[in-house]
Amino acid sequence: MPKRGVAPKRRHQLLEAAFDCIAQKGYGNFSLKEVADKATLSKGIIHYYFKNKGELLIMVLDRLTNSLDNLVNEKANQARTPPGRIRAIFDGSFEAASEREPFFQVLLDFCSQATKNKEIKDITAGLYARYRRLTQKILEDGIQHGVFKELDVQGVSTAIVGMVIGISFQYMLDEEAFSLPKVQKICEELILSYLSADSA
Amino acid sequence: MPKRGVAPKRRHQLLEAAFDCIAQKGYGNFSLKEVADKATLSKGIIHYYFKNKGELLIMVLDRLTNSLDNLVNEKANQARTPPGRIRAIFDGSFEAASEREPFFQVLLDFCSQATKNKEIKDITAGLYARYRRLTQKILEDGIQHGVFKELDVQGVSTAIVGMVIGISFQYMLDEEAFSLPKVQKICEELILSYLSADSA
Amino acid sequence: MPKRGVAPKRRHQLLEAAFDCIAQKGYGNFSLKEVADKATLSKGIIHYYFKNKGELLIMVLDRLTNSLDNLVNEKANQARTPPGRIRAIFDGSFEAASEREPFFQVLLDFCSQATKNKEIKDITAGLYARYRRLTQKILEDGIQHGVFKELDVQGVSTAIVGMVIGISFQYMLDEEAFSLPKVQKICEELILSYLSADSA
Amino acid sequence: MPKRGVAPKRRHQLLEAAFDCIAQKGYGNFSLKEVADKATLSKGIIHYYFKNKGELLIMVLDRLTNSLDNLVNEKANQARTPPGRIRAIFDGSFEAASEREPFFQVLLDFCSQATKNKEIKDITAGLYARYRRLTQKILEDGIQHGVFKELDVQGVSTAIVGMVIGISFQYMLDEEAFSLPKVQKICEELILSYLSADSA
DNA sequence: CATGAATGAGATTTCATTCAT
DNA sequence: GATGAATGAAATCTCATTCAT
Fold this sequence. Notes:
The mean pLDDT of chain A is 94. Chain A has 9 helices and no strands. Chain A is mainly α. Chains in contact: A-B, C-D. Chains A and B meet through α6, α7, α8 and α9 of A and α1, α6, α7, α8 and α9 of B.
């Protein structure tokens, strides 16, 4: 039954299964047996591919942050004008928040471990640092091209990313409380009016 | 050793200890033994005051949300003008995020359980619903008094609360990444300029 | 609130409560807290009246066996002829088995402890020894008066008491399996025909 | 140390150990640690083979009722004439009651749980229902062949099974109180004389 | 590569018992 | 007499990890 070179496939299988388990049971509440069952593999094999549960978790987080990075970057790169790219940031983020894949939930689970686990803190903090940097770049670009007014790019990018996180967060806690698309539109309006304000 | 009438004190002791444990170890990673040790009480007594770990946790969350409600409400009530009260929202929230008491961290831990535990979901969703409602009231008040322009109060309050959450969140992940007061100022500017825009 | 001389009342209260607890939860599965709650007294008081759980249980058993002794003896004494008294034995026993008070169930719970607890063994064995002795007396009386044939009174009394126990037992396990009165009649017929058989 | 394919052996080992523990300590008073020790296995392995203590207990009861079914059925099948088969019923049952294996004691422990546990009630009630049915079949057979008189087969089988249970029960409580073989002979006489009585 | 088996540490929970008041 | 409080032992159960095969 065992084929040669199945290692990458098995790793994938296990990481997917682990992701699903975290989504269903929570970061601190799933067992390796459940992962194995979900991957239709034996429990023992997990320790062949991963040193221990912690390493498996880190790998899951790595894949997750990569996915999110790609998702937002792609969206932002497709847009051409600075305002369009700001809109793309909201677009991509809220897509991840509303999608069937519980990306945001699982990411949140990891983030809540950040204060207790240096490795997780570094990875999650890095994700949002890149997020801010991307936004910052767009802002700087817009300013340079005269589309946006002069402003504190660092502060504003933090605010923009904050909006994205905080709204996804509220949406996760109660999907019925508000309409995500409507709020997205308001965010775009709010931010773009501020950016373009010929401040005077 | 047992004294009569110490029940409320003990409850308090245990809830404080549990809060500290969650802050240090995380929601899913602290043991009742640790709580007992921190409270310098015996393990058994926890189940004398609380039916089980779950009930203890809910009580901790209850106290936490009450504290946060009070904190923000007080700040908001002290301010007199609508713009001042909006600023107070940011003020109170970021105070909670930056304080020595890891309010935000622990709250986040609970929120990450929301998708797995109905009771927690209801309580945390309720907290943020009240948060939005407070903001909404301030907006409506400002509009009525002609200080703010007409706008979608629900959407804007969601955006404001989102900012607060998302910035606290980023701050928790990396305190060095930005200056909280500076970002706060930008948020206030961003929001207030939008609100007061004599769009007309 | 505490009155003088309430001791007997309290004892009674606790023994009744304990009996009910055993009936509901089983011999090995009820807690003293439950007894205290059912008696609407505090947990601590139990150890004022009884040395420990074991002693409480023995007292419950004592009351139970006394009740059963009385029940059967009274019935048997009311009857006048030997056949009538044999019938009375069945009557009283099956009454105890079918009554709302779960006498038999609780007694069985104690009996199942007999092989592990000398004191319980002695008390329960004593109950059935008296039962057999009563039956034996009736048989001897009947023989002496020429109503019954000569027979092994010890063996037959054991068989009669056995019937009573075994039928109550089956009835407890499944009340729908047979009609207790009908079976009682057959038992009486079976036994009395054997006893009176002018075997020649 | 772990070998492949030892599962059935381990299951057996654990069930035997559990049976012994119940026999020694009682249904509600033995711990899984004791079972593990008796089986010279680790505590954890019990939960590898059985979901929980309850499931282990049910499996023990299953094996026990199967053993008893077989014991009595074999005896009854070996005999050829209806009276012989009735005698076989007594024979097999009292053998189980007097044997070194504490079959009856353990069964009684389970039966005393019947009123508190539906699954146990069903299994134990089922055992005695089969017991009665077997006896009934023998009676019907005897009647058909003219060896036994016409009678209420349901009631009489209940009485016979009752005798068997009740005498085993008394014997368990006090082995010295009477001679089991002697009582057995009387039972056979009592029953067979009733059955064959050419009452007409 | 992969599995089934096994372990043992540790977590939650229950509870009889004790004791100050 | 009576209570509320407290303890600590023990029980059940979960689980990451290890290892022979």
